[in-house]
Design goal:
By secondary structure, the protein is α+β, with helices and mostly antiparallel strands. The chain is built from five helices and eight strands. It has helices at 4-14, 51-59, 126-130, 169-175, 177-200; strands spanning 26-30, 39-45, 71-77, 87-96, 100-114, 117-124, 138-150, 153-162.
């Protein structure tokens, strides 16, 4: 059963999903629940995209490194609460140029079909993330997101922020308001990266 947070996030994302593939990259952002970062959703037409291959790639967390930007470490963790192939718990560390390293533990779910999109989404495992060492990077306070795939179109949406106590003031601003400014570039790069990977599968 998927976590409530990611299901509720998917509902918010679907409000911004176009009825047909957009002619160019489309970005939507919105504030939610007074959080320090906006949630963001990007969608792009990818001629020939196979939705099943795309979502299978999303679930293949052990092979993210080298496929998706800034992923330095990504490995699945055996957990009887989350059984593959429909659910997977994993640890991920991201190395972001000029900003530093952020890490967290997440759980990823296949979420079925919604409005014609095949969907997978993740949410943070808060106790497990809080137990990580700050020496290895700042920890996420929240992190949730979804991938949406339909024939010839791919969407990616997320919301995330670091724990306030893990970063100084300038880095906090860069990772919140600064991250909002960079969201479109990050979304498009990851959409294109996943599409390339899916096409090779």
């Amino acid at each position: 059963m998927a976590e409530n947070e990611v299901v509720q996030f998917l509902e918010r994302v679907l409000k911004h999903a176009p009825a047909s593939p957009p002619p160019q990259f489309q970005l939507s952002t919105w504030a939610h629940a007074g959080r320090p970062t906006e949630e963001a959703f990007g969608i792009l037409a990818i001629p020939g995209l196979d939705p099943q291959k795309a979502i299978d790639a999303v679930m293949d967390v052990d092979h993210y490194v080298g496929k998706l930007d800034h992923v330095a470490v990504c490995r699945s963790i055996t957990d009887p609460r989350y059984s593959p192939p429909d659910h997977v718990r994993f640890y991920q560390r991201l190395d972001v140029p000029l900003l530093g390293t952020i890490h967290h533990e997440l759980v990823l779910h296949r979420l079925g079909t919604h409005k014609g999109f095949l969907v997978a989404g993740w949410d943070i495992l808060t106790p497990e993330t809080s137990a990580l060492s700050v020496k290895d990077g700042f920890r996420s306070d929240y992190s949730h997101g979804v991938w949406l795939a339909a024939p010839g179109v791919l969407g990616y949406a997320f919301g995330s922020a670091p724990k306030r106590e893990d970063v100084g003031f300038l880095k906090w601003k860069a990772l919140t308001s600064g991250a909002d400014v960079a969201a479109g570039r990050v979304l498009r790069a990851n959409i294109e990266g996943l599409a390339r990977w899916a096409a090779r599968r």
